[in-house]
Amino acid sequence: MLTVNHTASASGGSFSAGDGGLRMGYLSYEWASPEVFAIMHTVVEEAFRGQGVAKALLDAAFAAAITREQRKAFFHEAIQKQQSTTE
Question: Which residue range(s) make up the domain with 46?
């Protein structure tokens, strides 16, 4: 059964998804400011892609951000990719 665990610090943290002792993926984030939750990396192991692991990680991340009443969240990787394709 897929479970998601959260590890947090003052500057950021991560969510890891797994089944028992098997790591399926993770999401890392930083607090870009007190009001901005920046998702830095979302990684799903190849064997588990297409099985809802990324969705579970994102759902957990957004639930944590909502709990802190964050008004803004963004994906660091998506912004980097968009910038590199327009240069």
Answer: 3-86
